[in-house]
């Protein structure tokens, strides 16, 4: 049995090893690597070489450092498992661990936030290989002395290394450094109580495109999906959520606390958030909306009630609306204020009763005098508008007739309530095509 | 701006009518979308080996051991339900979870025994196709390669949705057993009695038959399959309720089909003194003078459908398990380049099994016998692993099995252990 993963990972590893800032490039580190999988079950001895017990697991502390330090060992002494502080390790080789002092206090280990057990939580669990852009299972982990502490420096994801662990004796403990990937280039998603993990992978993750991150998240398991989202900057996370398949997104939200879901959904485009919320069950939806800022929740509560097959169901409420007697400068300042939103192509102008008058393009605003009133700029071509419950097919027809990048949605009183952007329409069309399939199936369009 | 906008939006809400789709319509559509894992995994357990076992049970013991089937169906419901739930909640296949929770050795042990057992079972499916083909006068050198290519083409060329549809169509073939059952005019009273009153002749043969029935109904590859398939179908926790309907339906259907095979043979072969048959096609031939040509043909058609369905599922189940072990989750909609291991395993299992069936002088009987033994041995650790995962709070969270469910699982596992224990004991005495 041969896995295709090996050559791919090897090239990644070589690329990493070749990098100057990788610790694995240092010869002394490469030669002192200790396999964690091989170390489990080895004797823990005192300074005189007397056996104290057998190693059960290695505990590391995740912090701001790229390579987490070993904070302690779990050792089986007699029938009990006790915790030994990492500071007391005097020597750690692939065959044994020596402690500086003999005294062992038989203290039960309790999981602390920010710590993970390498054998129980990381080995054989899924990790994100940031360079290879994929989810893999870690086959082994490697420790090495670095900056006066023993640290987790590398991870092995090759199948050959995994098989090595099945065999008894020294074969199991022999490190295979050519297959080791720098710990800094993977994101481990162990459950450490929502704590910030390593700094390296976080910045590496931030370099990825939202669509790639979405693919990665879709490949992950429930709890670990949540962990990856927690590692991202909220704005990036919201972008990632927008890129995810509906089913996967629902699954993800179910695993996140309501407050976190609320935060992310509020950062997403309202029409996208509404689409997700629409698919959740009432109880879950309410718990998320309750955790949201009242204003955002109010908009979403309304959007959710619209049918997806009508204009109201696909529109976004992110629209800058100005009165006809507002100045050009005022309109521009509003646009600047909301610049992170996807609304930068102009403002909607309404009369004193709030009825739609015109949509004024950015270029018109910029070329007009700042002090001029918006009413001066009103004139043909007038924008296309559709009623809030226009069927999607008619919206599409209007769109293709008028060839703009957006269309304004109005209510029965001729007041603008939102806009449909070209990309919203594309999303709606894609969703429709998918729904036509028999099973809700594994997503991919075929 | 936003105050203004809110006011506008609020007013709009009053004027907009939201079309109401009837609740019922949504429910049925949702159920159809979730349907699949339970029915397909369940019915593929009624493969040629299963039909053979059921036929033998009916021919040898009449209606007496029907309760074994009832018990097996109950166990099937419980563990298929558990498997599908584990798949949906953890979004990982069984073998991957075994690697994660129980370590490298358990993972490699499970995966390699699964591969061996699945090659054996796949050989049995092809043997079933060969035998059924011979009933219609077709040489096995024609029927087996055609079946192999058909299955490979179906699973590897189709998209997930299309593949699933063909699976459903194949499942419909099982109705022929129900028809054959009615044609045999069974004694329904005796059948009911056999289902609810457990009697057991404590002989080597009876214990073997009972264990074989249990083992063929609750097959290791079926357990691995339903979990991976639920993952590949990307079902979510919201689907769990509907998925349960699917699993219960599938498992019950599996039991019902088995019931009809047993009563057909009980009402004909057993009553007329034909006690010993070696495979399902023999049962079909023996049916002809007793229940008519139609019953024989229905039996044979059912056999072909059963073999084709199982022959599609087995390599797929193996491919899922292998990808799972290596940590490269694969899906039916992945391309060849994305998942060479997945498709490689699929092809290897199919080709090796076809060769084993066609090779003149291959020890087919020995292979099939050892496959049954291996499946029985493998079943226990897999059930233990599933039990362990079911009670793992970190993996299952709120879906962790409660105390009462845990004791039911323990009871079933204990019962299966006793069966297998008895079988082993009889083997050496």
Give the helix/strand layout:
The complex is a heterodimer of chains A (446) and B (429).
Chain A: H1 5-17, H2 27-31, E1 34-35, H3 36-39, E2 43-45, E3 51-61, E4 69-77, E5 80-85, E6 89-92, E7 97-99, E8 115-117, H4 118-122, E9 126-129, E10 134-137, E11 140-146, E12 149-156, H5 159-164, H6 170-173, E13 180-182, E14 186-188, H7 199-206, H8 210-219, H9 222-231, H10 234-243, H11 246-255, H12 258-267, H13 270-279, H14 282-290, H15 294-305, H16 311-314, E15 321-323, H17 328-337, E16 346-350, E17 356-361, H18 362-367, E18 385-387, H19 392-402, E19 406-410, E20 416-421, H20 422-435
Parallel strand pairs in A: 2-7, 15-16, 18-19
Antiparallel strand pairs in A: 1-11, 2-3, 3-4, 3-8, 4-5, 6-7, 9-10, 9-14, 11-12, 12-13, 16-17, 19-20
Helix pairs in contact in A: 8-10, 9-11, 10-12, 12-14, 13-15
Chain B: H1 2-15, H2 23-34, H3 37-43, H4 48-61, H5 66-90, H6 94-135, H7 140-157, H8 160-172, H9 175-183, H10 188-196, H11 204-217, H12 220-232, H13 240-270, H14 280-291, H15 293-326, H16 340-358, H17 364-390, H18 393-396, H19 403-428
Instruction: Round the mean pLDDT of chain B to the nearest integer and report it.
Output: 81
Number of structural domains of chain A? 3
Number of domains of chain B: 1
CATH class of the largest domain in chain A: Mainly Beta
SS element count, helices of chain A: 20
Poorly predicted runs of chain A? 1-20, 191-201, 435-446
**Mean model confidence by pLDDT of chain A:** 76
The largest sheet of chain A, given as strand count, sense and whether it forms a barrel, is: 7 strands, mixed
CATH-defined fold name of chain B: Amino acid/polyamine transporter I
Structural class of chain A: alpha+beta
Q: Do you know the CATH architecture of chain B? A: Up-down Bundle
Radius of gyration of chain B: 23 Å
User: Outline of chain B, from the CA principal axes?
Assistant: globular
């Amino acid at each position: 049995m041969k896995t295709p993963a090996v050559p791919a990972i090897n090239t990644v590893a070589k690329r990493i090893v070749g990098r100057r800032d990788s610790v694995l490039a240092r010869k002394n580190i490469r030669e002192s690597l200790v396999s964690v999988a091989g170390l489990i079950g080895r004797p823990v001895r005192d300074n005189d070489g007397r056996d104290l017990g057998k190693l059960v697991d290695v505990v590391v502390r995740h912090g701001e450092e790229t390579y987490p330090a070993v904070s302690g060992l779990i050792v089986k002494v007699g029938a009990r498992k006790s915790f030994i502080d990492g500071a007391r390790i005097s020597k750690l080789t692939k065959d044994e661990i020596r402690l500086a002092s003999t005294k062992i206090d038989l203290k039960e280990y309790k999981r602390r936030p920010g710590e993970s057990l390498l054998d129980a939580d990381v080995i054989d669990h899924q990790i994100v290989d940031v360079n290879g852009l994929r989810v893999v299972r870690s086959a082994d982990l490697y420790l090495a002395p670095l900056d006066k502490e023993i640290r987790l420096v590398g991870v092995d994801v090759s199948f050959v290394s995994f098989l090595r662990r099945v065999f008894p004796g020294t074969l199991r403990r022999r490190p295979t450094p050519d297959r080791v990937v720098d710990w800094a280039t993977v994101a481990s998603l162990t459950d450490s109580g929502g704590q910030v993990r390593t700094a390296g992978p976080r910045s590496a993750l931030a370099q990825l495109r939202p669509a790639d991150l979405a693919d990665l998240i879709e490949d992950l398991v429930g709890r670990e999906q949540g962990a990856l989202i927690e590692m991202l900057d909220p704005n990036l996370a919201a972008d990632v959520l927008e890129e995810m398949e509906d089913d996967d997104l629902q699954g993800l939200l179910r695993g996140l606390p309501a407050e976190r879901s609320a935060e992310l959904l509020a950062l997403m485009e309202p029409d996208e958030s509404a689409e997700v919320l629409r698919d959740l069950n009432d109880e879950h939806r309410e718990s998320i909306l309750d955790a949201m800022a009242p204003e955002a929740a109010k908009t979403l509560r309304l959007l959710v009630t619209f049918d997806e097959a009508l204009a109201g169901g696909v529109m976004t409420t992110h629209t800058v609306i100005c009165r006809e007697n507002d100045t050009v400068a005022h309109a521009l300042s509003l646009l600047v204020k909301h610049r992170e939103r996807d609304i930068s192509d102009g403002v909607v102008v309404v009369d004193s009763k709030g009825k739609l008058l015109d949509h004024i393009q950015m270029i018109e605003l910029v070329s007009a005098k700042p002090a001029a009133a918006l009413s001066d700029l009103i004139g043909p071509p007038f924008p296309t508008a559709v009623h809030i419950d226009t069927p999607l097919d008619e919206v599409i027809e209007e769109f293709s007739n008028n060839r703009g990048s957006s269309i304004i949605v109005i209510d029965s009183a001729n007041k603008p309530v939102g806009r449909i952007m070209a990309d919203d329409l594309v999303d709606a069309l894609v969703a429709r095509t998918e729904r036509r399939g028999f099973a809700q199936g594994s997503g991919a369009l075929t | 701006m936003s105050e203004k906008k809110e006011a506008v939006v609020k007013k709009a809400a009053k004027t907009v009518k939201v079309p109401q789709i009837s609740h019922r319509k949504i429910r049925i559509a949702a159920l159809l979308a979730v349907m699949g894992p339970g029915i397909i995994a369940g019915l593929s357990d009624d493969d040629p080996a299963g039909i053979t076992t059921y036929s033998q049970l009916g021919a040898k013991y009449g209606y007496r051991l029907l309760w074994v089937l009832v018990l097996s169906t109950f166990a099937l419901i419980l563990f298929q339900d558990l498997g599908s739930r584990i798949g949906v909640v953890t979004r990982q296949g069984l073998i991957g979870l075994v690697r994660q929770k129980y370590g490298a050795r358990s993972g490699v042990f499970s995966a390699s025994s699964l591969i061996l057992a699945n090659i054996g079972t796949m050989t049995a499916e092809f043997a079933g196709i060969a035998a059924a083909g011979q009933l219609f006068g077709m040489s096995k050198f024609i029927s087996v390669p055609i079946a192999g290519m058909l299955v490979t083409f179906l699973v590897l060329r189709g998209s997930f949705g299309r593949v699933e549809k063909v699976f459903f169509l194949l499942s419909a073939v099982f109705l022929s057993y129900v028809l054959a059952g009615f044609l045999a005019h069974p004694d329904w009273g005796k059948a009911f009695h056999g289902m609810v009153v457990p009697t057991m002749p404590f002989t080597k043969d009876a214990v073997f038959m009972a264990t074989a029935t249990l083992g063929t109904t609750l097959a290791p590859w079926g357990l691995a399959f339903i979990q991976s398939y639920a993952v590949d179908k990307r079902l979510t926790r919201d689907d769990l309720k509907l998925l349960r309907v699917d699993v219960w339906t599938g498992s019950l259907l599996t039991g019902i089909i088995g019931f009809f095979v047993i009563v057909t043979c009980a009402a004909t072969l057993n009553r007329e003194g034909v006690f010993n048959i070696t495979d399902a096609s023999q049962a079909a031939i023996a049916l002809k003078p007793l229940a008519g040509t139609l019953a024989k043909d229905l039996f044979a058609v059912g056999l072909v459908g059963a073999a084709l369905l199982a022959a599609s599922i087995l390599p797929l189940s193996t491919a899922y398990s292998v990808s799972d072990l290596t940590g490269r989750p694969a899906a039916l909609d992945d391309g060849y380049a994305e998942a060479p291991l997945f498709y490689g395993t699929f092809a290897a299992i199919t080709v090796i099994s076809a060769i084993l069936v066609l090779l003149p002088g291959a020890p087919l009987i020995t292979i099939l016998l050892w496959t049954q033994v291996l499946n029985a041995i493998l079943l226990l650790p897999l059930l233990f692993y599933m039990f362990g995962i079911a009670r793992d709070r970190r993996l299952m969270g709120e879906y962790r099995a409660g105390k009462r469910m845990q004791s039911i699982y323990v009871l079933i596992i204990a019962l299966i252990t006793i069966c297998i224990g008895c079988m082993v004991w009889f083997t050496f005495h």
